[in-house]
User: Fold this.
Amino acid sequence: MFKDLDPLLHSQLRLAVMSILISIEEADFVFIREKTGSTAGNLSVQIDKLSEAGYISVVKSFRGKMPRTSCRIMPAGISAFEKYVDALGGYLRPK
Amino acid sequence: MENLLSEKESLDLIGQMISTAKNNLQKGIGKIFLLWGYLVAIISLLTFILLITLPPETKYYAYYLWFLIFAAYPVHFILVKNKEKEKMVTTYIEKVMNWVWIAFSISILVVVAGLLLAMVLVMPAFTDVRPGHEFDRWFQWLFITPLMLCLYGFALFVSGKAYAFKPLSTGGVICWIATFIILISIHHIHVLAIQQIVLTISAVAGFVIPGHLLNYKENHHV
Assistant:
């Protein structure tokens, strides 16, 4: 049924992550977890999937002594997101 | 968790996530505005008082008060560091605005460095300042206040429009009006004192009031 929809994006949490990242420059892992209301474990699995596909880049660093993970969207992610939204529009338009 | 979504749910989710990320206001900016605002307001007010009370041959030394401005830098960098520590997200607007303020600082640096060099190197080499003509030695500083205020008005106005925060853009307009007043009074006998008191008012309107309003906004999440 959803054959045109990118399976990587057509999942609640991954789509939420991509929607956050498409509108901003860079976001902290904690920020994404709070905004999506997900668990850290699940979020990190989904972020890894997006990162392996080259949709987002994940940078791990230290802020003082606290480890910090920040994510930003990549060009491949932007075009995948645009295609996904476009395909969604196709389903919603009256035929 | 691999919830499958309907098309409608997908679109709702996208819209919802985009708007939560967008409304995230940077914390800690208010304090930076207050630091510079109060310092500039106090220094310009004291300079104004000294300019109108000191005898003509020494009054220009009132400008040395402006070296106090360097005291703000260490505090400024501590405040910026704390702001970065708390920051969870960088929006595109913030990125652009950071560059606008960096460009503003560079512009100020160029103006100050140029005028300082003119005074320290070029002026003693080419001009002979006679006693009673101290104004010749200091007149170049006439340009620093309107230049800084005009640039500051520019940065403030753009910030206000970018963050959709009216006190900032209004502050920018006040700085431009202040620049205009300073420029039309440039031939007035009390031009230096006029500049300083106009600067005090601009610092209050352009830094202090927006700073307090930003703090209020941060603390009350409006």
